[in-house]
Design goal:
The chain is an alpha+beta fold. The chain has a domain of 176 residues: 2-enoyl-CoA Hydratase, Chain A, domain 1. Helices cover 25% and strands 27% of the residues. The strands form 5 sheets. Strands 2, 6, 7, 8, 9, 10 and 11 form a 7-stranded antiparallel β-sheet that branches. A hairpin with a 4-residue loop joins β16 and β17. α6 packs parallel to α7 and α7 packs parallel to α8. The termini are far apart.
Length: 407
């Protein structure tokens, strides 16, 4: 089974679910035995299974399906496609799992045109569904969403003036996506505000550079990872070597606003700071655990280190910070992280759609669950809107001070 990243269904308002998902969190495989609903060729219900071939629960659904086709006053005009999709959606909604969702054929076709890494077109924001709400996990640095002031934690309530109430996460994303140069208005409700705010945005082609670095005073190197793309590990190694060549004796690793990315890239990047041990566990429904170990040969395993996180740090960045924290390799500074640790795969359906289903959860090396809980920093420091407006960064200042004391 091909498995691609999922950290933030983390889903994109760029090329979506196949894009910024986290590592082994996504994949493709055939659905198997269950046949989907198919378009009708007449008023006769297109889906019918003889009694005894299915479970009692599904048999009841089939009975309802048959009765509608036989007795409903508008049976000749019923949209069996819509009824079928609605039946599947209702089944999935009843799970109460925001990360498991049905993707109809049209939406899934749009989803699979996406990619991760390099350039893409969109507003540049990663979103998730939490407690029935569509929320921003993190705007991508330099994107239209970030430039407009959209922030992690913002709740999307409307797109182009139309309420998204009752829509699934993929349905919302399809409404927001579009070609560079086209416009979309996203209506946001921010925590603490009672009135929604409209953000008119022009979609753009966004170039993603996932690693940046610079020297700070006192021989401290600063490295920022914005996402975990396929080329992130090699870019990180180059950045670390450059910093060490400039005389860096300590490091600050900034994972703020990082929504995750590919699992392999996350493990390889984390391994640059750890000598050995476990990076994360994947725990299945029956309690079985698969471990992902440190890749030996990291080039920054002994330099004094501090790690920055915030509410926009999700999935892959939580895995990285959790491994570093559990091994007591460095202090974590900032605010609590997002709490995205579900492992999801795509199961392709014969109608051209797919089921995006949670199959496991990520755990830190010490067995801490990330999903729904996030990570608490060792040193909590807020960065207020006033700090941002004044160009202040007390979190970074604290990290630099902490590393300086270790030199």
């Amino acid at each position: 089974m091909l498995r691609v990243a999922k950290t933030t269904v983390i889903v994109l308002l760029i090329p979506l679910l196949l894009g910024l998902a986290f590592g082994a969190g996504m994949g493709f495989s055939p659905a198997g035995a269950l046949a989907p609903f198919a378009p009708a060729t007449s008023s006769t219900p297109p889906f019918h299974t003889r009694s005894g071939d299915v479970s009692p629960e599904l048999q009841t659904l089939i009975e309802v399906w048959d009765i509608l086709g036989q007795d409903h006053v508008d049976r000749d005009r019923l949209d069996w496609d819509a009824l079928g999709n609605g039946s599947i959606q209702g089944l999935v909604d009843a799970l109460g799992d925001p990360h498991t969702s049905y993707i109809d054929p049209l939406s899934y076709k749009l989803e699979t045109t996406g990619h991760f890494g390099g350039d893409y077109e969109g507003i540049g924001a990663v979103v998730d569904q939490r407690d029935g709400k569509i929320v921003i996990v993190s705007p991508i640095e330099g994107s239209p969403a970030a430039k407009a002031g959209i922030k992690a934690g913002d709740q999307i309530v409307a797109v182009d003036g139309d309420s998204i109430e009752g829509l699934s996460l993929p349905q919302v994303i399809v409404r927001i996506r579009g070609q560079a140069g086209t416009r979309v208005t996203v209506t946001i409700v921010r925590e603490g505000d009672t009135r929604p705010t409209e953000f008119p945005l022009t979609r753009a082609r966004i170039q993603m550079s996932t690693v940046s670095a610079e020297m700070k005073p006192d021989d401290i190197g600063y490295v920022r990872i914005t996402t975990f793309a396929s080329d992130t590990p090699q870019d990180l190694v180059k950045a670390l070597r450059d910093l060490k060549g400039q005389g860096a004796r300590g490091l600050v690793l900034d994972l703020r606003g990082n929504p995750g990315g590919f699992l392999d890239a996350t493990v390889q990047a984390t391994s640059q700071f750890l000598k050995k041990g476990i990076v994360l566990y994947e725990e299945s429904a029956n309690g079985d655990r698969k471990s992902w170990s440190v890749v030996p040969g990291g080039i920054a395993t002994e330099l004094p280190l501090a790690v920055l996180v915030d509410r926009g740090s999700a999935s892959g960045s939580e895995v990285m910070a959790g491994a570093i924290q559990d091994q007591q390799r460095a202090v974590i500074i900032g605010t609590s992280t997002y709490g995205k640790g579900a492992v999801n795969i795509f199961r392709e359906l014969s109608n051209g759609g797919a089921l995006y289903v949670t199959i496991a959860r990520w755990l830190t090396p010490n067995g801490r669950q990330i999903e729904g809980q996030g990570l608490a920093p060792d040193i909590e420091i807020l960065r207020t809107q006033d700090d941002n407006a004044r160009g202040l960064d007390p979190q970074l200042d604290a990290a630099l001070d902490h590393v300086k004391k270790q030199l």
